[in-house]
Amino acid sequence: MGTESRERRIDHDEFDPIGTLALIGLYFVILVVMWVLMWQVEFLDGGPTVVG
Amino acid sequence: MATFIDRYPFEAKVVRYTFAVSFLFLALGAIGGMIQALHRTGYLRFIGDITDGSYYTVLTSHGVFLVIFFTVFFLVGIFTWAVTKELDRELGNPRLTKYWVTSMTVGAILTSVAIIGGFSDSVPMSADVLFTFYAPMGAHVLFYLGLTIFITGSWVAGYDWFKTWWDWKKENEGKRIPLMTFMVLTTMLMWYLGTIGVAVEVLFFLIPFSLGLVSEVNPLLTRTLFWFFGHMVVYFWLMPVYLLWYNVLPKLAGGRLFSDPLARVVFILFLLLSVPVGIHHQYVDPGIPEGFKFMMMTNTMFLLLPSLLTAFTVVASIEHGARQRGGTGYFGWLRTLPWGNPAFSGMALAGLMFAAGGFSGMINAGMNINYLVHNTFWVPGHFHLTVGTAVALTFMAGTYWLLPQITGKRLAAKKAAAVQPFLWFVGMTFMSNAMHRAGLFGMPRRTSEPQYEGFDYEPAFGTVAEIDAQVVGGGILLTLSTFLFLYVVVRTWMGTRVSADGGDEIIDDEIPPALSGPEDSPRVLDNLKLWTAIAILLVILAYALPIAHIASQGLYEGSEYFPMLLEVLTA
Amino acid sequence: MEIHKYEKAWLVGALVLIVFFISTVAYVTAVTGVDMVDESGGTIHPDDVSDDERFGDPRVEQVGENEFEVYMVALQFIFRPDPVEVPEGSEVTFYITSDNVVHGYQIVGTNVNTMVIPGQIAEITVEFDEAGEYGVLCNEYCGIGHADMEGKVIVHPEDEWEEMQGGDD
Ligand code: HEM
Ligand SMILES: [Cu+2]
Ligand SMILES: [Cu+2]
Q1: Cβ within 8 Å of residue B142, ≥6 positions away
Q2: Crossing angle for the helix pair B414-440 and B342-365, nearest 10 degrees?
Q3: For a surface tag, which of A8, A30, B93, B277 has the fewest beta carbons within 10 Å of its beta carbon?
């Protein structure tokens, strides 16, 4: 399938996966923000905890 | 060029068979899932009330059928396909192949019979112990025997693939291990190492226990042995998925694999790290010193690395396809991808859900925050994204591409196939999101009726009713999607055969070479002996002390047998 | 080995993320005092539970001004003692064991959550700063009546607690 609709051929050296970097950078930011929220809001602010 | 079935009729038959068994278990599992969703939420309860164990019979079947039989039967099929196709040779010894196929089938039947016996009071057999079968709860001995026969079958299957590779190597001296074969072999090495835990647990403890040969076992020890195996197994489900994501998905997107060397590194990391982490399932177990938990936690976090690397390589490979198809911009290229092709859309959506499941998995791994989520509904929320979607949906998508190769028939019902992955995605978004949220306010998993007399849940936002509705609604969409998939499979199977020299009817089975091939990587990556030795060493370092600590409290001392039989419990 | 520069960047990013996650866990352990349940509760053979000085008579015991100890047994399908009643501001150490199958002990909507494993004694200390009623449930499948297995922790306001104590004499 896919390959039929190829418009041009791009080899390794001429290919910079900038879209991938953008997506994965976004994922990184989401992970960090959600991580902090989960720990702070859900866990540490979340009522009694085991302390010993 | 002739496709798989024409070149390797025997192997094609093996793959067809294991896929068929796998899909049968998928169907049964989906029905069970639907029953659970309806029952837990109170929408429809027809399998008996709270004084009846049927819910847990269903739950045991849902777990075992889906995460052991559906996944592993599919795995042996796809690994057989991968090794045969890539090495371009038949499996050397059909009798051996028939042996493991039979062994796995017999094992699966025995275990299933033991589980299903739980529905009937007149059958003196049950195994309502869930797929983790924690001692001292006991199942009928057939349950454990079946699992043993099933797993030994999978061991022989691994030997079959190794043997095929050894034969190939003799004729191809000095060549690198082809990538798919490399993945199959490293995965099986990981499997051999990790199944030791459950093999010891079942053979030395649970079978003698269920036969009354020993009167007690140490429940913490058997749990620990289970999880020695239990985390590795999640990667055993995932490795065939990675095989498809690395080798097939790029091509479906119209591109090529971005980096073969990194794919090898990723699989080696899984071999090294997937076992010495199992205690992360026991963060809140008494009896295990905190230091051991902390050490396994750090290993677990490092185990994120291969998956994070995979995310980059696979997305870059897809992007390569999109750029070649004329895609532009930072995100605009996503539009040019073949979303109408269910093989592509299924795998891509599965990958997206895996990214989300990755996040909840990171939370699970955070030792102390595990208090918040352990054994709550959050956990099934997490693994329905990982094994329940990343794995299940990728297998379905892979089937759309593979089925023509192993049946020689064109994919039928293309429209149904095209919507199926999206239906799954929407259904799972509802169900999994609701499960995660419910877990955060304390709703437990593995509970037939999680509505209590003495207290009400206090959701931070939304309501319990709205969450229940999402679980049921999502579950309905998922079940529909599963049967839509099965419909496409059956229709395809019943179709007419494309002739081997089929002119323009050629069945697509080409896998283009990687952009950066194996020649760009050091040969040491292919030294399987070395990596296995390091893996064993790491397991010893991580597990010797915890197991010694727990075993010193007694091997055959601890708890007496608690058969999960109706008579016993109500007596 | 040839690795694209973006991929190298991501490799670094991924490692940073991993170290950050590990540090979070370590920080919370070291600074906020959240402690993992571990081997400190010791072991007990399930057959000995009913004769044990602590677990033979499951109870709440005051051991210091604001300190309480709870000796609890998880049965199929109740917790004993139930409810657990303490005054607000108290520090309560639970010792929980089982003489049957594996159970879980979770105070709903909090971070108090431990497995209860036959042979082991789970020891967890919890500070109850606010008065109120907390639901408790068993979160590990333990047999047919598992969904029925619930309990309560009642944290009484100071004055109410004093009244209760007075009423006892
Ligand atoms: C039709 C789609 C599905 C539905 C509606 C569904 C529903 C559910 C529900 C509601 C539970 C929670 C039961 C409880 O804890 O009381 C559950 C558990 C589970 N599901 Fe699914 N599920 C589906 C598909 C899958 C798939 C495809 C997999 C894996 C390949 C899977 C694996 C599991 C496992 C391992 C459990 C945990 C069993 C246990 O706790 O012992 N499910 N499922
Ligand atoms: Cu795990
Ligand atoms: Cu229970």
Answers
A1: B110, B111, B113, B114, B125, B127
A2: 10
A3: A8
Q: Is the pLDDT of residue B229 over 70?
A: yes
3-state DSSP helix/strand/coil % of chain B, to nearest 5? 70, 0, 25
Say if CB A2 and CB B252 are below 8 A apart: yes
Q: Indicate the DSSP class of residue C43.
A: B
> For ligand 1, is residue B45 a contact (CB within 6 Å)?
no
Query: pLDDT value at position B503?
Result: 56
Instruction: Kindly list the domain boundaries of chain C, sorted by start residue.
Output: 1-34, 39-164
Topology of B176-337+511-571 in CATH?
Answer: Cytochrome C Oxidase; Chain A (1.20.210)
Lowest mean pLDDT among B118-122, B518-522, C56-60: B118-122
Considering the entire predicted model, what is its pTM? Answer: 0.96
Q: Is B66 in the pocket of ligand 1 (CB under 6 A)?
A: yes
Does ligand 1 lie within 6 Å of residue B386's CB atom? no
Residue C87: beta bridge partners? C156
Q: What is the third-level CATH fold of C39-164?
A: Immunoglobulin-like (2.60.40)
Give pLDDT, residue B553. 86
Which is the catalytic residue, given B45, B256, B264, B382? B382
Task: Work out the minimum CA distance from C111 to partner chain A, whole angstroms.
Answer: 5
Task: Please tell me the distance from the alpha carbon of residue B401 to that of residue B411, in angstroms, as a whole number.
Answer: 8
Is C4 close to A44, i.e. CB distance below 8 A? no
Q: Which of A2-6, B110-114, B149-153, B447-451 shows the lowest per-residue confidence on average (mean pLDDT)?
A: A2-6
DSSP string, B209-276: HHHTSSSEE-HHHHHHHHHHHHHHHHHHHHHHHHHHHHHTHHHHTT---SBHHHHHHHHHHHHHHSST
> Residue A1: what pLDDT?
39
The pair phi, psi for residue C75, each rounded to 5°, is: -110, 175
Judged against a pLDDT cut of 70, whether residue B347 lies above it is answered with yes
Structural domain boundaries, residue A28: 19-43
Task: Give the separation between CA C76 and CA C79, rounded to whole angstroms.
Answer: 8
Is B384 assigned a catalytic role?
yes
d(CA B238, ligand 3 centre) in Å = 30
- Give the nearest chain B residue to A25 (CA atoms): B312
Please indicate, yes or no, if residue A14 is contained in any of the structural domains. Answer: no
Ligand 2 centroid to residue B524 C-alpha, Å: 29
Question: Is the C-beta atom of B380 inside 6 A of ligand 1?
Answer: yes
Say which range, A23-37, B123-137, B284-298, C14-28, has the weakest mean pLDDT. B123-137
Q: What average pLDDT does the segment B54-82 reach?
A: 97
For residue C137, pLDDT over 50 is answered with yes
Contact across the interface for C148 and B457, Cβ inside 8 Å: no
CB A38 within 8 A of CB B363: yes
Residue type, B209: F
CA–centroid distance, B132 to ligand 1, in Å, is 14
The residue nearest atom 26 of ligand 1, judged by CA position, is B388
pLDDT confidence tier of residue A4, bands split at 50, 70 and 90: very low
- Given an 8 Å threshold on Cβ–Cβ distance, is A48 in contact with C111? yes
